[in-house]
Design brief:
elongated, mainly alpha, 5 helices, about 0% strand, single chain
Amino acid sequence: MQFDQYMTQMASWREAMADGKIEPDELLRQARRVEDLLRAFEPKLSDAQHEELTRIFLELTVFYGMQRIAEKVFLLTPRNVEVSAEEKARLIDKGFFNQS
């Protein structure tokens, strides 16, 4: 299963996206959720595991930075071009969603 497919199955994602957009308080709640999970997990790690997990998180940081840039890309069409419902659904499945 790909990362985005797994993400869309998570209850926290579905709850946050129920209205089709991410609100600042939803983002903060998710950040706190991740922080709590990491704080609970960290004492269980050996030094080598901690180092490896740190490298993974650094790579995730790069991924999220790239994703933030990609999110600034918009689908613009001329007024006379209609995006079909199927195409909109396909775009949503790929992670695009209406933030207006």
